[in-house]
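Exam prep: given the inputs below (a chain plus 3-isopropylmalic acid), describe the expected output before reading on.
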Amino acid sequence: MAANKKLLVVPGDGIGPEVMHEVRRVIDWMDRRRHVSFDLAEALCGGIAIDTHGTPITDAAMAQAMAADAVLFGAVGGPKWEKLPFDQRPEAGILRLRKDMDLFANLRPATVLDALIDASTLRPEIVRGLDVMIVRELTGGIYFGEPRGITTLPDGQRKGINTEVYTTNEIRRVAAVAFELARKRRGKVHSVEKANVMESGLLWREEVTKLHAESYQDVELQHMYADNCAMQLVRNPKQFDVIVTGNLFGDILSDCAAMLTGSLGMLPSASLGAPDASGRRRALYEPVHGSAPDIAGKGIANPLAMMLSFSMMLRYSFDMDEDAKLIEAAVQKVLAGGLRTADIMQPGMAKVSTQVMGEAIVRELDKLAA
Ligand code: IPM
Ligand code: MG
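Solution:
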């Protein structure tokens, strides 16, 4: 038995607990069949933590996250908590996890599986074989910049302020992650900002250019404005290999990239910190889809993004590439077999619930490992 891996599970709100329930089957399967053992703990975050403890995340839960080898996160948020001030909302919980764990590099891969080509709203020839990696800066930019807030002006109008801020180091460390990833992929990085109108964007472009010249000349670097990138993602997404961008543009562009694959319900993500002296890095894995309150509790959510997030965890936190591939293969097989949750339903396929999809993945794992 390999040494225990300390895993903190944070289901959160909306469909978070439903999809987490299915990934637990896969974790149990790994425990049973693959001779790895996870030391599991669970914590509250988001609306459920507000209802239970009066705060989107407690200091105790934060301490658990800091001590874990990896955090597996569901989703947070919902209409029930929308009226609260920003720092008391469910989203403040995940933002604190990202910030305090210093998870500055958010990897959001968008790949189109052959079985799902027809689920995309784009023509098959545009998306067939698509494999883009968005690297989103996650602990800086306008999400965290100061000053921020809403004030009342002397004439009674109100003013809302947020600030886009980036420093040299913040830009360099996330760009380095993108260049390193590109080296293991197709060797191409698009760096995305609005250097035509924003000083922070101009600095971004200059720093990425410098880092490239210093250390990554073997990688092809192109700069692109964020609006153009949104357009190019829909026009010709296969021109991209790795996209590196700031927090807000990354949020937007990754939803766009997700939809190229057919559904937000398919997209996993990894949020990584810097490796320490022993090579260990803090990490959190979550599906991109969010809490989807409109379908929560109905048993129809797609658990595959959650499963694929777990597979990213095996790859990036535990060096278990083979096991990660096994989960990916199981997902592909089940889809090829015609099972679909509602979000990726196609004519002639079998529409199944969250639970049936989860069970099908485990059955497929059994077959693959037999
Ligand atoms: C995401 C989400 C979050 C974000 C929310 C829930 C705070 O949209 O992870 O993309 O804006 O970063
Ligand atoms: Mg988002």
